[in-house]
Amino acid sequence: MAIHMGGVTLTTATAQTSSSLHSSKAPKKIKQKHSGLLPQNRRRFTGQTLPQGRRSHSAFRDLVAIVILFMLVQENPRKTRLSRRSRKQIRRKTFPLILDANMAKDSHERSPLLKRHKKQKDDEEEDKPIQPASRFGRTFRKIFTSQAHERKSTEEKEDEFETNAQGLREVYAGYPEKHIFRHGNGVKTSKYSLLTFPFLNTWEQFRRLANLYFLINSIIALFPSISPVNPITTILPLAFVFGVTAIKEAWEDWKRHRADHKVNSFNCQVFDLQSGKFEKVKWSKLKAGHIVKIKEKQQIPADVVLLSSSEEKGIAFVEASSLDGEAGLRRREPLKQTADLNNEEALKEWLQQGVIVECERPNERMSSFEGRIKFEESNEKFQHESDREEESEESGQLPLTMKQMLLRSCTLESTEWAVGIVVYTGHDTRTMRNAKSPQFKLSAFEHSINHFLILLLVYTLIIMVASALTGTLWQNSQDDSLWYLPLSDSPFITFLMLLPTFLILYNVTIPISLYVSMEMVKVALTFFVSHDIKMYDEGSDTRAKPRTSSIIEELGQIGYVFADKTGTLTVNVMKLITCSINEKLYDFPRDEEEEEGESVDTRAENPEKSQNILEYLGADGKGKKGRGGSDDNKDKVDEFMFLLAICNSVIPQPNPDNPEETLFAGSSPDESALVESAKKAGYVLQSRTMETVKINDEEYKVLNNIEFTSDRKKMSSIIRTKDNKIVLYTKGADSAILENLTKDDIRQKTEEHIKSFAENGLRTLCMAKKEIDESTYKEWNDKYKKASSSLRDRDKKMDEVSAEIEKDLELIGAVAIEDKLQKKVPQSIQTLRDAGLKVWVLTGDKLETAVNIAKTANLINPEEMNVVTVRKDDGDVIEQLQKAKSKWKKNTGEKENALVVDGSALTEIFKKNKKDFYKTSKQCKSVLVCRASPLQKSEVVALYKEMQKKKLLAIGDGANDVSMIREAHVGVGISGREGMQAAMSSDYAIAQFRFLVPLLLVHGRWAYKRLSKLVLYSFYKNITFCMCQFWFAYYNRYSGQTLFDSWSLSMFNTLFTSLPILVVAAFDQDVSRRSMKDYPQLYRESIDKPSFSLKWATLWFVEGIIHSAIIFFGVVFLFSQGAITSHGHDFGLWTLGTAVYTVVIITVNVKLALEVNSWNLWILASLVFSVVIWFVWLALFSFVPPSANALFNDNVLYGVPIFLLRSYVFWSCCILLPFLCLIPDFGYKYLRRRYNPFNWQIVEEIEKFGVDQEKRPKKEKKKRHSNRTPLRSVSEHYSNIEL
């Protein structure tokens, strides 16, 4: 049977064919050859005998399943998801069905490489629940899952690509059609589609308690029998809030859709094996196995293994700043065997050999790749997997590393074209695996708001039930005279009818616009951060960049700062200062134009005299080499400088601005600094290829480059010299080099120099060499090649083989590299400590270097601190911690504590008892962790995050700081010279460490104070307004009658009282930026005495209840004293309600005015507008008759305001009652400021009047109370105030 679909033929054996292969007495499981197989595609498979009458039905059923699955894949290949069990069942059933892909005209052009059977899983995996495989099932599950819009974490992503028995991905070069059930290269970063947006966005918004609460009210309002207000007026505010948020989300997602469509529509050139030419294909149609051709200035469409290029030996250069922000070209080298595939004929011939790229499954690692290219021999192309298990792992294989990888989104530069094999596509690429959406963080501030909202909801339910119960009891105690009330014979029915009525009347208790107001204010505060000129770095032209606005108030509550050192506290601009060569010291002169930063080179006096190395070598410092010295050390110095120039991975590049100048692009600033220093000494690195290095016009053959790894802590180059010797040159950390020496002639003296360098805060590296004979090298090189082609623990095997050659070394010398502190780092750390923050430094540097930097940065001061150092070599680490705590307990002086911990000691501590480390370090003002790995940094932050409640901030600049930044409550990245990975993973990105001070002390504190005021005031004004309805219920015998008209009731939060608090929350400030710098102790109030707490919320809540009582009963009392119109009529219900409404608006606005600390035009205008717009509203409704419009068919204010505004009683209420409400506020603020002022109030007076008492007004001097502390003494001793 054959069915044709879009050029693909599905062929299956008929029942007759199957019956001829089996007898009725055949065993249950047999091996058979399918008659429908083509000769070159013949595969063995295991089948099961079925009764003859069922075989055709089973084959037809399976074929229908394949057709349906094929249609789903074609419709949306990326979204087709099958469970593990479903895929296994489909493979069992589909392999007897031959996929005869008619993609080639001749049989020899067809791929000989069909996918092997995947080994059967354990029975436990088969029993796992099947996930919805249908598109409807997936959509349904997404819609009703709370986190449907969030993409699976990379750890949970299942690799759906077919893998071999070893769990490795196999890519068939030139034959992408062999990878069945695969999605293409299209990417989707959007959250919604037209189908899912209404459901998902609705679900997201109603996850907020307040929105759900108002939704219930809106539904109840639709029933006229129980709703006292117009349902439109209840629904409209919710619809407004809901709509604003939905439009914002839709706009942002639409931009993501446009970006996705733009990227997916890019064109690339794909090699067609039939025609032997490259054809245009959209990015979204690209699949694993395609051969692509990228031209200069084009982006790489997927993760590609480089085969060849237009350059010599196939080398290509890519610019990868889009990945990590690091500028400069990255060099990529193809395999020697593929470098000559520079034309279509050679490429086609090579692909027809049966090329398979065997590589690791998709992952997030941007710096490593393990894979290999292998070829299928003609006699073993299609043998069963089990027959190949004994095949040698390394036979006929070409190892692939990161040197051959071109990652998606990089740009091809300085290369006319490049050709490669696509191995990862779409969301499997490294770029997309790392392109995680910013992590949503809910601040503790919002947690507190949610808790208080729950309490407020409970209070609302209490008064609602009390009102409904009271109304039920009263109505059922009356006779039939109350014919106008919808009474029921059953008290229970009456209670049930009154309950939702009061729910609608009291729903204003919870501010509906609170979340929207908070988001708007946060966006405004984030805008101020990004446009703060004081946080602009002119040198790098970088502004502060907030990457989220959801936790900006968290910046005002930080208790701990965890900082990296290199690039965070230092500028990460390395300069070679001095070196030790064969027991002698040589200095490099400083440049006339020094880089920015503060030097940490203390230049301690040394009894040994050092010599200027440029003078010694006779070099001019610009690359010209002189004759040099004539002493016995000349050869050692020459060899030392030669090692600096050749043992590295630096690529020389011409300077685009000055072609005569050469720039050195290295993997780290250290390498570039060493090569630059070698150039000054006359050893110029001119070019580098895969096999050669050119230095001073002489070419040297590079046999091997053993790259630096964090485990080995060194790198090596094996060079064939001019005299045909093989020499290994190596450089690395002193701990990695000194332990592998064979001679100790100069070790002791060199170690003394290294210790001296480290004590002066300089980074140190050791240099060594080793001569290797031919036989030893050949034997080692065979092992190295074998290890490099392994896909099982390749890194471990390569490190083991490298260790065999990197021993018995001869020490040449050591270098000392200076990394200057950034500007104002010591002052910034001191300011943060004065503000009550504890600053920790977690660095990978050695202990002596880190301690010196800490001293220079004002982090550790041995004269003022009790410093304890914990090392693994000094004994049991837990005992050392216990001794430290005992020592500090005995300390009764004023000295603070500081702890220094080595990385190896920290590892032991976390293995034994990490709580001891927490208890000990908690007593310290400063902690320094040395030789810390990225994992240890995140573990330390996670420990403190778990053990205490204070908020943590982590700041770093490199990829090794990303885990720490993500772990902390607030992550800050520095846009440094190590790239942008830290900045892109952070919540806030800044250019210099000193900008952390205004970010926390100014913007963080302001944000926390402002948002606290916003929330407290929102609760206050709503309680004041709502409780007026509650007091009025007594007068209408709890019948559910509303005091206010429906439209005014619905507009209280959205129109009349929302603008002033928004403006105040955006612009108000209690003290200026300058004062926060002078008095950083003010920051402690945000931590020790928070502005938003249950205490303050309760005070505002109670004040709202008191004000509502004064307003309502005051209006009732004044109106009862002869409030009669000119026609002799009483004003009535709506007149009373309008008067109460007006007094509430005036009172809450004056209350807000009392809370303003710094006035400006915007704040004044918003307060005036809030009152004026209410009177304009009254004027408009006064002339709109009830029948004019369906929306206003219940306009009860028609004609009322005209009579009301003519009454002196009304104006008396507007003036007298707000004054009565706010007399206690005036009195409290006066007495508090006069006799027990807050610290910010003292600073506020210092700002206005100055410290000197003579600057104060004379009247103020006479009125001063004798018991009040003079401002002069407060200012002078402010640092001693305990907040």
From TrEMBL:
<dbReference type="InterPro" id="IPR032630">
    <property type="entry name" value="P_typ_ATPase_c"/>
</dbReference>
<keyword id="KW-0479">Metal-binding</keyword>
<feature type="binding site">
    <location>
        <position position="564"/>
    </location>
    <ligand>
        <name>ATP</name>
    </ligand>
</feature>
<feature type="active site" description="4-aspartylphosphate intermediate">
    <location>
        <position position="564"/>
    </location>
</feature>
<feature type="transmembrane region" description="Helical">
    <location>
        <begin position="494"/>
        <end position="516"/>
    </location>
</feature>
<feature type="compositionally biased region" description="Basic residues">
    <location>
        <begin position="25"/>
        <end position="34"/>
    </location>
</feature>
<feature type="binding site">
    <location>
        <position position="937"/>
    </location>
    <ligand>
        <name>ATP</name>
    </ligand>
</feature>
<dbReference type="Pfam" id="PF13246">
    <property type="entry name" value="Cation_ATPase"/>
</dbReference>
<dbReference type="Pfam" id="PF16209">
    <property type="entry name" value="PhoLip_ATPase_N"/>
</dbReference>
<dbReference type="InterPro" id="IPR023299">
    <property type="entry name" value="ATPase_P-typ_cyto_dom_N"/>
</dbReference>
<comment type="similarity">
    <text>Belongs to the cation transport ATPase (P-type) (TC 3.A.3) family. Type IV subfamily.</text>
</comment>
<feature type="compositionally biased region" description="Basic residues">
    <location>
        <begin position="1258"/>
        <end position="1267"/>
    </location>
</feature>
<keyword id="KW-0067">ATP-binding</keyword>
<dbReference type="InterPro" id="IPR006539">
    <property type="entry name" value="P-type_ATPase_IV"/>
</dbReference>
<feature type="binding site">
    <location>
        <position position="961"/>
    </location>
    <ligand>
        <name>Mg(2+)</name>
    </ligand>
</feature>
<dbReference type="InterPro" id="IPR001757">
    <property type="entry name" value="P_typ_ATPase"/>
</dbReference>
<protein>
    <recommendedName>
        <fullName>Phospholipid-transporting ATPase</fullName>
        <ecNumber>7.6.2.1</ecNumber>
    </recommendedName>
</protein>
<keyword id="KW-0472">Membrane</keyword>
<feature type="binding site">
    <location>
        <position position="960"/>
    </location>
    <ligand>
        <name>ATP</name>
    </ligand>
</feature>
<feature type="transmembrane region" description="Helical">
    <location>
        <begin position="1131"/>
        <end position="1154"/>
    </location>
</feature>
<feature type="binding site">
    <location>
        <position position="731"/>
    </location>
    <ligand>
        <name>ATP</name>
    </ligand>
</feature>
<keyword id="KW-1133">Transmembrane helix</keyword>
<feature type="binding site">
    <location>
        <position position="931"/>
    </location>
    <ligand>
        <name>ATP</name>
    </ligand>
</feature>
<feature type="transmembrane region" description="Helical">
    <location>
        <begin position="1196"/>
        <end position="1223"/>
    </location>
</feature>
<dbReference type="InterPro" id="IPR036412">
    <property type="entry name" value="HAD-like_sf"/>
</dbReference>
<feature type="transmembrane region" description="Helical">
    <location>
        <begin position="232"/>
        <end position="251"/>
    </location>
</feature>
<feature type="binding site">
    <location>
        <position position="961"/>
    </location>
    <ligand>
        <name>ATP</name>
    </ligand>
</feature>
<dbReference type="Pfam" id="PF16212">
    <property type="entry name" value="PhoLip_ATPase_C"/>
</dbReference>
<keyword id="KW-1278">Translocase</keyword>
<dbReference type="GO" id="GO:0005524">
    <property type="term" value="F:ATP binding"/>
</dbReference>
<keyword id="KW-0460">Magnesium</keyword>
<dbReference type="InterPro" id="IPR008250">
    <property type="entry name" value="ATPase_P-typ_transduc_dom_A_sf"/>
</dbReference>
<feature type="domain" description="P-type ATPase A">
    <location>
        <begin position="273"/>
        <end position="328"/>
    </location>
</feature>
<feature type="region of interest" description="Disordered">
    <location>
        <begin position="14"/>
        <end position="35"/>
    </location>
</feature>
<feature type="domain" description="P-type ATPase C-terminal">
    <location>
        <begin position="983"/>
        <end position="1237"/>
    </location>
</feature>
<feature type="binding site">
    <location>
        <position position="566"/>
    </location>
    <ligand>
        <name>ATP</name>
    </ligand>
</feature>
<feature type="region of interest" description="Disordered">
    <location>
        <begin position="588"/>
        <end position="610"/>
    </location>
</feature>
<dbReference type="InterPro" id="IPR023214">
    <property type="entry name" value="HAD_sf"/>
</dbReference>
<feature type="transmembrane region" description="Helical">
    <location>
        <begin position="1014"/>
        <end position="1035"/>
    </location>
</feature>
<keyword id="KW-0547">Nucleotide-binding</keyword>
<dbReference type="InterPro" id="IPR059000">
    <property type="entry name" value="ATPase_P-type_domA"/>
</dbReference>
<dbReference type="InterPro" id="IPR023298">
    <property type="entry name" value="ATPase_P-typ_TM_dom_sf"/>
</dbReference>
